[in-house]
Amino acid sequence: MIDPKYPELTDLQVEKLKSYGEIEFYKEPTVVLDFGDQHYDFFVVLTGGIRIIDPDKKDDSLTIHRRHQFSGSSSILSHRTVGVCGETLENTQLIRISPEKLKSAIAKFSDISDVLLNAFLLREDALKNNVQGIKLIGSEHSNETYAIRDFMDKNDIWYNFIDSDKEDGLVQMLDTFNLKESDLPVLINSQNKISIRPSIDEIGMCTGVRLELDDEIYDVLVVGAGPAGLAASVYASSEGLSVLTIDSNSPGGQAGKSSKIENYLGFPTGISGRDLANNGYIQAQKFGCTISVPHRVEGIERKEGYYEINSNNTSTLKAKTVIAATGAAYRRLPLEGIEKFEGSGIYYSATSMHANMCKNSEIGIVGGGNSAGQAALFLANYAHKVYVIIRNEDIGAKMSDYLVQRIIACENIEVLTSSNVVKVLGDTYLEKVEIKKNDTLMENNINYLFTFVGAKPCTEWLDNIIDTDEKGFVHTGLTICDNALKSETVFNNRKPYTFETSLPGLFAVGDVRSGSVKRVASAVGEGSIVVSDIHKFLALENEVNTIS
């Protein structure tokens, strides 16, 4: 039986691919893929084979690609660093295809696209479980270490975490690399290259998640890679527009933090927000979209015929249209000293990393929406006790009924209604939480507190240059106030498009938009529909430029 991770291409598919690459022959074993390469080629085996090797276990083969099998995983579409080595066998003949040519072939031949992408996705999951990747040494209770783990986890970067608080041979390990505990956290790759206390930006660069962006004027620049931004990226790039998508942290947005989404159409058994985001991330790149993380936008300026976007870590980005898909972020609880526990006991998402951290512990979930409910059910599989803390008297006020029923049925979840967290206690990490229920104060030994409350729009980068509601969510289309429209002469001749803001050519979709329904399905819908608005805008601009 053929393993779906390692399928064989048909003779016809191989013939099609030959026109996209070069045929090469290797008499002796030769490394054609090396650990850490960011720009690496795709290979189809004609004769011989390619041995795939875990760089930490060089004597063992993960697999051997044989005749009409192919190398690569989804990272080849995004220029992420390759996590394995590939070495030819003796007397091997290959087709070598560059990533750019491979994308062209995928776009043209759906049969090849289906085989490759399915295999790439399956391999990515398998390799993550079998290849150690980068080593990260640091304390589980360190905010700095947590920030690195959170970034790598959400961006699907393979790594092996070594907790310095629990590692018996830590001193000897550090001595081996001439390091001190004060150097932590450190990253060590399979070539023993060391990065001491690396920034998130440095990690993005060295893993290929962040790209060097050029001076091109894109048709569309999408700011934010949540469901709305990824949907816009997929639809815009699939329709031939040049698209750049950036995000300040990782693909997925708030939805990427959901452990399981069960009410999204087409997934009857549910899908994790992370898997949904990762699939959208790959799908957009399949159609030629450029995605780069992390970039925090600090301002936007309108020029003649395009926008300039200023980011914290790259040159000015240019685009004819911009889509604001920056969503909303959960608010910090208004408690004294809470900031010192963020990353060391207080968190704003619930992923597999968090689940492993809070095994057999007492945890608290603050919030009564679907994200809080999903987190409670997910973490209940690991924690000894889960407290769901809500201000309302009814947990069903804002949460979907299917989640409510499961929470009620779960033996180790206790719902505290009419309750608030009023104090967080601890020395270097969270040790206790004080909760007020009605007029009664109680202290719980909660070491991990997850908050999903009070979403606020991420619109700081727009700096009050567009029309918003009183909470800062962006007005679009018919909801834009008349005074804002009067300042733009273009709106004397036409009404703003459905998702257009008070600035022509600047659009807003998803949770950042005033009046939006805070659901993944609606965000995806808005992200796909906005592309028709962009086509209208670009067509009208081209018409005006032609006349002038």
Strand and helix layout:
Blueprint: H1 11-18, E1 22-26, E2 31-33, E3 42-47, E4 50-53, E5 61-65, E6 85-88, E7 92-97, H2 99-108, H3 110-130, E8 134-138, H4 143-154, E9 159-163, H5 170-176, E10 186-188, E11 194-196, H6 200-207, E12 217-223, H7 227-238, E13 243-246, H8 273-286, E14 290-292, E15 297-302, E16 307-311, E17 317-324, E18 328-329, E19 346-347, H9 352-357, E20 362-366, H10 370-379, E21 385-389, H11 401-409, E22 413-416, E23 419-426, E24 430-437, E25 440-444, E26 448-451, E27 456-457, H12 482-486, E28 506-508, H13 520-547
Parallel strand pairs: 8-9, 12-13, 12-17, 13-14, 17-28, 19-26, 20-21, 20-26, 21-22
Antiparallel strand pairs: 1-7, 2-6, 3-7, 4-5, 4-6, 8-10, 10-11, 15-16, 16-17, 18-27, 23-24, 24-25
